[in-house]
Inverse folding.
């Protein structure tokens, strides 16, 4: 059975929140894949050479901090360039400071930067079918409301869900306002022979879980 590696390098609070929020999602993945986890950089390194490894999910913000993780960032980039898939998701966006977020993606030689943080309704991009294939794309929600940390500087062909001109922020506190049409909550981009993915949802929406499964 193919394996999915979870990089869980965050502190005890991140570990506890992930266990509380994402146990059902992990159970869903276990129906198809074997799940292995790494809590330290030393634990993560051997996973990169597993012949049965399907993808690596970076599920909290731990990778973005600490000198001990700088080398691992570069190793993950090399893993993707050699044909692997790395997806930043779950608690990653919630527990990454903007400066650390930007610096880490620079180490991947990606232009992605920390963008706006708000909720709006997003729509499946026309590019998604060409990136994921017809069958996977038609199984995704055509639109859904998501509170997310957005990405700046994503290529058009990497955008999976997008706002439209009529999209407005959705808040119980602040009045609706127009959203930046060039910032995206989810992306999947070629990186050498492999892929780098990002799902910035902070609330574990069903549509986002389905998207992560489609990226695997």
């Amino acid at each position: 059975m193919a394996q999915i590696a979870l990089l869980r390098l965050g502190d005890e609070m991140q570990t506890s929140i992930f266990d509380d929020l994402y146990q059902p999602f992990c159970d869903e993945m276990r129906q198809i894949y074997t799940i292995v986890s790494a809590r330290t950089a030393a634990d993560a390194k051997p996973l990169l050479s597993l012949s049965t490894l399907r993808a690596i999910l970076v599920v909290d913000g731990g990778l973005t901090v600490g000198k001990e993780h700088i080398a691992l960032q570069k190793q993950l980039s090399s893993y993707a360039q050699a044909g692997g898939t790395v997806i930043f998701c779950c608690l990653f966006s919630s527990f990454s400071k903007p400066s650390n977020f930007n610096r880490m993606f620079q180490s991947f030689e990606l232009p992605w930067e920390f963008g706006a943080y708000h909720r709006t309704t997003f729509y499946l991009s026309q590019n998604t079918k060409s990136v994921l294939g017809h069958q996977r794309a038609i199984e995704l929600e055509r639109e859904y409301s998501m509170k997310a940390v957005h990405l700046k500087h994503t290529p058009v062909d990497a955008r999976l869900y997008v706002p439209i001109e009529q999209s407005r922020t959705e808040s119980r506190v602040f009045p609706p306002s127009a959203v930046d049409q060039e910032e995206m909550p989810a992306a999947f981009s070629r990186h050498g022979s492999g892929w780098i993915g990002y799902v910035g949802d902070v609330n574990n929406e069903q549509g986002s879980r389905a998207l992560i499964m489609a990226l695997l």
User: Anything to note?
Assistant: DSSP finds seven helices and nine strands in the chain. The longest helix spans residues 12-30.
